[in-house]
Design a protein that fits this description.
Length: 396
Amino acid sequence: MFIVKIAQQQNAAALQVQGQVKDSAQIDLLKRKGVTAVVIDPAKQQVVALDIADSNGFTHASAVPAPPAVTLSARQSGKKTSMTQELAKAEKLYAEAKNLQKRAFRDISNGKTIDVADFRNCADGIIDSVFRNQDALLCMSRIRDKDAYLLEHSVNVSILMSIFAKFLNMEESVIEQLATGALLHDIGKIQVPDAVLNKPGRLTEDEFVQMRKHVEYSRDILQQTEGISDISLDVAANHHERLDGKGYPAGLTGEQISLYSRMIAIVDSYDAITAQRVYKSGQTSVKALKILLADSPHHFDPVLVKQFISAIGMYPPGTLVKLDSEKLALVLEHNPASLTCPIVKVFYHGSKRHYLTPVTLDLTNARCNDAINTAVDALEYKIDLKKFFNQFIMKV
């Protein structure tokens, strides 16, 4: 491939690299220099000779033509919308996705099959919104209902997978399959006994064994579902596998786990950690990301974890943060150029414990004399974040 420039680099002096990469030794050198991502130009990719073994074990060179130059898709070249413009569409999409989940659970309980086309259409709507303005759906995914975890979790994972795959510049057909698989990845939970699935507390060892079965149930249901793709099935069947082999159900290790399954393992865990449930408070986004980093490389791919952080930000939209001024603010927009300086809506004084007239603040603005101190839990301040969001954000 032809490298245009270094996109991400760690722990070393910045490199200025441009040119053809012809073998793995050059890639290994870049890795040792801390390079984790590069920008390539597909139009300048050379024809590569691959050694392919025939049925007798002999090898011969086979020319693989370079792919055509990348052209922008309708989604990529389409009109981008503001947060305000996209929020109403995002709210409707989120509600429709939850209703689709509810209907699918009911159909399976009644012995009916899943219509994959419905989930593909839902995934397409999510991806369209992500390409127009990903912050709107990210914000919706953070305004949780503690009694609707089962329905919201798969929707949130689909949103996050779409954003993650878009950040990694994956083909749109792949993003669609990932988003569809994410919507369906927990469908097997409908076959877990209600007493286990909805238990308001820590599971016993026997109950945890029953809960873990949901992955196999999801796999079995989807294997019998007409029209499901291999990629969608892969992420549903392997979202609890871990790099060190301590995941389930198959105990896969390292390279046995596909890139797509490594991605959903990160996304699924992140959303589960941050979820607000009946029996536990959700962790802040910062805490969740620190847990993912701490569990790398044993459980998660460390490069992918860092890329995921870059994709959603240290303080994703919908996160409640406390500023140095002791004021509280809701994060509205992710700033890719500065992960710790998003656009926020200030609305509450943390130490004086009273509401303020909501003000939008761009923390990257040179005239701004405030900064994020930490992410906080709305329950700590007895704030109904969903009510505030509906009153002051949706009506902007």
